[in-house]
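User: I'm curious whether this sequence folds into something compact or stays loose and floppy. Could you predict its structure so I can see for myself?
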Amino acid sequence: MITVLKNPIITEKATKITHLRQYVFEVETSSNKVQIKKAIELMFTVNVDSVRTVRIKGKNKVRMTKKGIMRGKTNLVKKAYVTLREGQTIDVVTGEGTEE
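Assistant: Here's the prediction. I'll summarize afterward.
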């Protein structure tokens, strides 16, 4: 169940929405909202209010090397925006859920 979560996303945009009780996680591309909700509740012992997901398509990349042009593509990434119930937080750095 916990293998659904890959890692938390700690960017400027992701830390701005923590005051709204929303946290961003990178998840497996095959996981659904119910699996994500259960994994968050088990791992951090908090109550999840809602889960929103977004799939980010891979980009085409081209670079010049000594052997010529190399073409490739980055992988598909799936993010989950998790909203917690009132009065609950997750400390993403230590990985602990708390109730205020």
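Summary: The domain at 2-87 is CATH 3.30.70.330 (Alpha-Beta Plaits). Residues 33 and 100 are 25 Å apart (CA to CA).
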